[in-house]
Amino acid sequence: MSLPMTPTPFYPVGTPGTPWNEADIQAWRARLPRQRSHADDVVAALEPLRARYDIHRYGEVVYDGHAYPLLAVRSRDWRDDQPVLVVTGGVHGYETSGVHGALEFLRDPGVALDGTNLLVVPCVSPWAYEHIQRWNFHALDPNRNFRADSAAAESAALVALLAPLRGHVLMHIDLHETTDTDESEFRPALAARDGKPFEPGEIQDGFYLVDDIDHPQPAFQRAVIDAVARVTHIAEPDAQGRIIGEPLQSPGVIEFPVSRWNLCAAITGARFATTTEVYPDSPRTTPAQCNAAQVAAIRAAINEAMKHRLTP
């Protein structure tokens, strides 16, 4: 089912047809109140986990005089000869269940992790988490900027953290949401920022996955979808047989040039990788179900990848 979107007027920052300058970015930031606390919701939530995991500060970002620690959770019995499992959340700070689903998984993994190394980064973009935004402080989308020389400090820091693990990562799952505000706020803002006209789209009601079109793993994606379907409903395609404009690989799975676009799920070079997309605005789900869907996806991704850990 596709949800029709009402027409959106031009975004109220900048000049139509002209890309934003620094003054426009400052005007954009002025519209964004701080709405929640990374220190309370993430940093404090990780403290009780120190009894079971190593909590590693792999960097920080400083915006407007406020320092945000960048935190990763690692297996305590890390061994370099074991395959690595990576979970990332909060690349887009407004996608709440990505952050809280990762934290919920850490509190109760519910899956056998013996013989593996687990690394979880629950909130890649803390400033965006606090301001419920897609972009970082400088109006950059972290999920188009995962490269070593990135202008997005959050992205560059995560690339540096994960670079030594490239070639050793068996599975990487990146936790996201698709929301109604994608169409009402973030896509209009993107068009305004880049000086382009806004082209309305559709939002599908339900959960779906994004596979890398250059490195597809359809059986792996299918296993994750099957597990999540027991928790929440899977998105149906639109009248053109697409989800967010992309054709289906299989029900609830689309393919996208993840590596070519410098998206998070590609930076580890994991054999098994996927991006989740939870739909929290559905009348058919709740915040708790959204978190549970992310946890189910993580567990299924780990279980499926581990079945194939020794096969070429």
TrEMBL record:
Domain of life: Bacteria
Any Pfam family the entry gives: DUF2817
InterPro entries given in the database record: DUF2817, Peptidase_M14
Location of the Peptidase M14 domain: 34-312
Family: Belongs to the peptidase M14 family.
Protein name stated in the entry: DUF2817 domain-containing protein
Organism: Pelomonas baiyunensis
